[in-house]
TrEMBL record:
Pfam family, one: Carn_acyltransf
Annotated transmembrane regions: 102-124
Domain Carnitine O-palmitoyltransferase N-terminal: 1-45
Entry similarity comment: Belongs to the carnitine/choline acetyltransferase family.
Domain of life, source organism: Eukaryota
Membrane topology: Multi-pass membrane protein
Keyword GTP-binding: no
The protein's name: Carnitine O-palmitoyltransferase
Biased composition (Low complexity): 779-791
């Protein structure tokens, strides 16, 4: 989501000239492999439990027992190998003869068991390296793919845990430089003039002739040594080395139910939500969360789940680091500028929701004011990273205990003193304010370093602010779906709006954290607050639920819902700005070990042809021709999406080549040109991954309304969307108020018009546009008035 801003808004943060000495590249490659092996060692026990999958530790005992039974029946399944192993063991005398036989059988069983598991893993890895199924037309399945599915089912086992498939996932391939350059030139052709394109093509050919082969060699070396040839560099150079503020630039947000608030009691909603989040953590630790499977069969990498909880991004002078703890039994809470440490566990384990509600109510009822400068302390986490790193060093000397309580928490909780969410009086403005409060707030009421901040508003509305470096949106989205469903449907609330159960008066009071702030930190807080308020004030957010149709109608048109929206966005943006632009859509590469994301360049020649046809006069272009061009644009987008998912995208490969060229001090004008480009439109679909948790037919209002992220640059848009059941799409749009070229609400109107115009090309959607607007709707905005929230 917000990665587009970090990746291309200001370019990756590279080492300085002093760091990029000769040999720095080989050192970086060595460190990449070292980090991979350290992660494997740190996960040793999990790897043992899940890594033997699709076998199990009990299968060794079964195999050993079978060998012992064969010996009892005077059979030798080892063909003499057990006797040879027995001869190699020390001779402990006649009385231990039987013990030597048992040890020899155990060693043989272990070797045979390990060989069988290795064979299973190798077979499964080879099977999972097949991506032909991705390239086949929707609804059509070839014989090789059917055979592949059957074999995957045979080798996949029956009850996988979260990390069961990690050792069987293939590594992300390094595409050929020729293919990447060809695809890149194809992607920029629609947005460049003939002269600019000829110049760019010349740079590309020079790159292929002079630098590409050497840079490719180093990338292949890294792909053999490290778990993934690009992901760790992506995390380090795009995120951790960036010195920009996290607020708006890197964080993104997730919303509550759009139309429903299960309880208006702030402390009760906080109690249930925190309990649900910690239940998710409990399932995560036990690996009870099922791995995500495409087509119900193809597993995705689960590595990003490891750092959801107990994680903080610690600022540094040159680069940040992710600090992850094995466990944490408390949450850090912020209310009216005061910080508290709230324990989440007692002698009997995880506190029940009613006890957590009691603790949060105690925080809300505490009359003590915030101390001097404490109220705005969290603004430091919204400051440029080097400023915050310097101030944090001063805090470590004077307020180490309070700082540790915050950074060592399971996650951060902000009890916001203001209400939020959809309001009857002004639905459109209230949704925009809700999104802005989650993305930026007041600049001093979120701890942006934590992996995520749970935000609970005074009227019981929830939200999530997520730091981006540790994982991508589908991971936090999976957690958020579980949280909303669990706290609302499983835990529930009593008739008076409180958590079910009884308070526990014997619990100790939440611990108030005290900060001894030196004078130089006072100045840093003031500067950070000024910058955060300016950035927050310049951020324009717009949320609108498009309810005229959704995924259901698009399916009836036999089209990909994501591609349908992406092509419509091209039409909307062209109407908004009068020109085409590079468009960034995030796609996942989790088909590979430790894969993260890839870019789908949605502004294609086919999409541009369709937009021109839509804007042409009816007399020159008919609807049948427009429909044909639209289908071509959708097919092209689907092909790009599948290529990105299968490791054959453009941007991550070019990014890695750029990093190599910089570390080698090898000038590459083509790569410099690529990474100086500006993306005026960054888009992302928020996937619904656990639809079974929600009853969209009987309770259509109880679905997540998705989330959003900040604009990618000063004159660009950030657009995310989520399909809410089969009948609606919610859009989240952001831009800069200071820009004279963008307007989030204006783009929202164009998006609605574009979706209706595209739908009208199909028989299923021809009646929509005529019936969705009345004579006065134009002035009211595209979405009209959303349904009033339930009390």
């Amino acid at each position: 989501m917000a990665e587009a801003h970090q990746a291309v808004g200001s370019g990756p943060a590279l080492p300085s000239g002093a760091e990029a000495a000769p040999g720095a590249l080989l050192q970086e490659i060595y460190l990449s492999g070292l980090r991979s092996w350290k992660r494997h060692l740190a996960r040793f026990w999990n790897d043992f439990l899940a890594g033997v999958f699709p076998a199990s530790p009990l299968s060794w005992l079964f195999l050993f027992s079978a060998i012992q039974l064969a010996w009892f029946l005077q059979l030798d399944p080892s063909l003499g190998l057990t006797e040879k192993i027995k001869e190699l063991l020390p001779d402990w005398g006649g009385q231990h003869h039987r013990l030597r036989g048992v040890l020899a059988a155990a060693l043989f069983a272990s070797c045979l068991w390990g060989a069988l598991i290795f064979t299973l893993h190798l077979a499964l890895r080879l099977l999972l390296s097949y991506h032909g199924w991705l390239l086949e037309p929707h609804g059509a399945m070839s014989s090789p793919t059917k055979t592949w599915l059957a074999l995957v089912r045979i080798f996949s086992g029956r009850r996988p845990m979260l990390f069961s498939y990690q050792r069987s996932l293939p590594r992300q391939p390094v595409p050929s430089a020729q293919d990447t350059v060809r695809k890149y030139l194809e992607s920029v052709r629609p947005v460049l003039s003939d002269e600019d394109f000829a110049w760019t093509a010349g740079l590309a050919q020079e790159f292929l002739r002079l630098q590409a082969a050497l840079l490719q060699w180093y990338l292949r070396l890294k792909s053999w040594w490290a778990s993934n040839y690009v992901s760790d560099w992506w995390e380090e150079f795009v995120y951790l080395r960036s010195r920009n503020p996290l607020m708006v630039n890197s964080n993104y947000y997730m919303m509550d139910f759009l139309y429903v608030t299960p309880t208006p009691v702030q402390a009760a909603r906080a109690g249930n939500a925190v309990h649900a989040l910690l239940l998710y953590r409990q399932r995560l630790e036990r690996q009870e969360i099922l791995p995500t499977l495409l087509m119900g069969m193809r597993p995705l990498c689960s590595a990003q789940y490891e750092k959801i909880f107990n994680t903080t991004r610690v600022p540094g002078a040159r680069k940040d680091r992710l600090r992850h703890l094995g466990d944490s039994r408390h949450v850090a809470v912020l209310h009216r500028g005061r910080f508290f440490r709230v324990a989440t566990h007692g002698p009997g384990g995880l506190l029940p929701p009613r006890a957590l509600e009691q603790q949060f109510q105690r925080v809300l009822d505490d009359p003590a004011p915030a101390s001097a400068h404490e109220e705005h302390l969290a603004a430091l986490t919204a400051a440029p990273r080097d400023v915050w790193a310097q101030a944090r060093r001063a805090l470590q000397g004077r307020a180490a205990e309070a700082l540790e309580a915050v950074e060592g928490a399971a996650f951060f909780v902000s009890l916001d003193p203001e209400p939020a969410g959809l309001a009857r009086e002004d639905p459109a403005a209230s949704l925009d304010a809700y999104a802005h409060a989650l993305l930026a707030g007041r600049g001093h009421d979120r701890w942006y370093d934590k992996s995520f901040t749970l935000i609970v508003f005074s009227n019981g509305k929830l939200g999530l602010s997520v730091e981006h470096s540790w994982a991508d949106c589908p991971i936090s989205g999976h957690m958020w779906e579980f949280t909303l469903a669990t706290e609302c449907f499983q835990l529930g609330y009593s008739v008076d709006g409180h958590c079910k159960g009884h308070p526990e008066p014997s619990l100790p009071q939440p611990q108030r954290l005290h900060w001894d702030l030196p004078d130089k930190v006072h100045r840093s807080i003031s500067l950070a607050l000024r910058g955060a308020r300016a950035l927050s004030g310049d951020t324009d957010c717009h949320v609108f639920p498009f309810s005229h149709f959704g995924k259901g109608l698009i399916k009836r048109c036999r089209l990909s819902s994501d591609s349908f929206v992406q092509v419509a966005l091209q039409l909307a943006h062209f109407r908004d700005r009068g020109r085409f632009c590079l468009t960034y859509e995030s796609a996942m590469t989790r088909l590979f070990l430790e894969g993260r994301t890839e870019t789908v360049r949605s502004c294609t020649r086919e999409a541009c042809d369709f937009v021109r046809a839509m804007e042409a006069q009816e007399a020159t272009v008919g609807d049948s021709q427009r429909l044909s061009l639209f289908r071509l644009a959708v097919d092209k987008h689907q092909a790009l999406l599948k290529a990105a998912m299968s490791g054959q995208g453009v941007d991550r490969h070019l990014f890695a080549l750029y990093i190599v060229s910089q570390l080698l001090h090898l000038p590459a004008p083509f790569l410099d040109q690529v990474h100086s480009e500006q993306w005026q439109l960054a888009t992302s679909q928020i996937p619904v991954q656990q639809a079974h948790l929600f009853d969209v037919h009987n309770c259509p209002d109880y679905v997540s309304s998705g989330g959003g992220f900040g604009p990618v640059n000063d004159h660009g848009y950030g657009v995310s969307y989520i399909f809410m059941g089969d009948g609606a799409i919610t859009f989240h749009i952001s831009s800069k108020k200071s820009s004279t070229k963008t307007d989030s609400r204006r783009l929202g109107r164009h998006i609605e018009d574009a979706l209706l115009d595209v739908a009208s090309l199909f028989p299923e959607g021809q009646r929509l546009k005529r019936g969705c607007r009345g004579p006065g709707d134009e002035a009211a905005g595209p979405q009209g008035t959303p349904a009033a929230p339930q009390p």
